[in-house]
Every structure is written in structure tokens, then in C-alpha cells.
Amino acid sequence: MRTLGQKRAEFALNKVVDIPQDKKDKFKPFSAGAPSMILQNGFGQALAFWIAKSKNEYSEHMTMFNIVKEWLCQNNLTTGQNTTEFIRNISQLDQSQYLTAQKETLALLEWVKRYANAGL
Questions:
Q1: Does the residue 11 lie in any domain?
Q2: What is the pTM of this model?
Q3: 106 vs 13, 21, 117, CA distance in Å?
Q4: Distance between CA atoms of 5 and 8, rounded to whole angstroms?
């Protein structure tokens, strides 16, 4: 039986490997700062900022948002078929669920950051 940490690591690896090579140069430094952005500004605020800054579906901001969205939905911490529905559902979580989603996101981003820095 695999641990949640192992599942996080595998998911993060698959997502980082799938990033187009020409986008990895911008994604690497962005992934390094993403956890601190959440801690300094707040979970919901960071997600909203990433959406606002995304120029297209393949920008580092939207890539990171989609990684977080898919992980949280896959692990039944929230739902959302599209960006608006996902953000709406995040904003309607009670405090305990919201903090759980934030904690899980931070744990996932540590793996994303490691793999991005490894140049995978």
C-alpha cells in the first residue's frame, strides 16, 4: 500500500514531466516561490493571483493552478469542473476544510518544486 506522500510525489513527477520543455525555464523559479506566496498572501488569494496572471493555458501560473486543482479534486478535498466552479467551491469550504486543502497544496508543491528544480 502506498502512502499519501508517495502518491503526491508520483503525481507531481508526472505533472512536471508533462510540462513542455520550452515552458520549464519559467516554471522552475515560479514553483520555488509558490509555497511562500500561499503562506504570505493566503491560499485563495494565491490561487486568484495565478488565474489573473495567466496569459494562456500553458503559462506557468495556469500550469500551477491546474496542478493544484487536479490534485485537490482527485483527493476529494473540493470539486470543480472549471476554474470558476473550483474557486467558488474553495471559497465555500469551512475553515477546517480550507486549511486542510491549503496544507495538502503546500505538501504537493514541495514535490513539484523539487522535481522542477531537478530539471525533470
A1: no
A2: 0.93
A3: 15, 24, 16
A4: 5
